[in-house]
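Hypothesis: this fold can be encoded by more than one sequence.
Test: take the structure tokens below, design a sequence, compare later.
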């Protein structure tokens, strides 16, 4: 039996377990960042579609492994035991294109059913910040413990918060001037920040931009 034909072909597929995110790019230049919760909620598995019931309580679900299914799809094995969803390239493409619409409809169904969806990493988070090279001199410290508000959930929102905290030093924290590691692993803007993480700010240049001294 020949494999199903697909309209779209992936050029990259990467699982970011810490961020609970599947990043997939396609040959037409499209690139999608699909949360594991979203993929689990919209699993194409027959038993999920047959019941039509709301899939809930998956805020912290993760993908354990990705299993190729010929040249047309992958099986996503989730850490809650769900392993029957076969995601064709076209299915993943459509889930990416329709992500905002699908997710809004899902939230509306939850609301209509009276179900409150908790944020996966809501609440305050205590993290340790490390400053390297000239950044440590500028801030006059090599490390500090800070408490992040609930809205700071990833590297991008952390840098935004740090720039707002001391506006005169915002140029030091522009995306092209600093690389960020979380628990000694280099990150993407979407990398999650969780309670107890160690976050390091590493300058990309040996020379700092001009800023006033503390």
């Amino acid at each position: 039996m020949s494999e199903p034909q697909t309209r779209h072909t992936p050029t990259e597929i990467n699982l970011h377990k810490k961020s609970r995110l599947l990043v997939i790019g396609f040959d037409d230049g499209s690139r999608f960042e699909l949360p594991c919760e979203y993929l689990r909620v919209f699993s194409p598995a027959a038993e999920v579609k047959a019941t039509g019931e709301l899939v809930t309580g998956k805020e912290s679900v993760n993908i354990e492994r990705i299993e190729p299914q010929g040249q047309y799809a992958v099986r996503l094995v989730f850490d809650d035991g769900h392993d029957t969803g076969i995601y064709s390239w076209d299915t993943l493409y459509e889930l990416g294109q329709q992500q905002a619409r699908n997710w809004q409809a899902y939230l509306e169904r939850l609301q209509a059913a009276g179900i409150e969806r908790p944020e996966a990493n809501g609440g305050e988070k205590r993290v340790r910040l490390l400053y390297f090279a000239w950044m440590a001199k500028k801030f006059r410290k090599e490390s500090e413990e800070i408490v992040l508000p609930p809205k700071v959930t990833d590297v991008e929102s952390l840098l935004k918060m740090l720039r707002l905290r001391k506006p005169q030093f915002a140029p030091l924290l522009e995306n092209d001037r600093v690389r960020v590691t979380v628990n000694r692993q280099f990150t993407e803007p979407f990398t999650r920040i969780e309670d107890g993480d160690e976050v390091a700010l590493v300058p990309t240049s040996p020379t700092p931009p001009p800023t006033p001294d503390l």
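The longest strand covers residues 10-16. Residues 10-112 form a domain with the NE0471 N-terminal domain-like fold (CATH 3.30.2020.30).
Hypothesis status: open.
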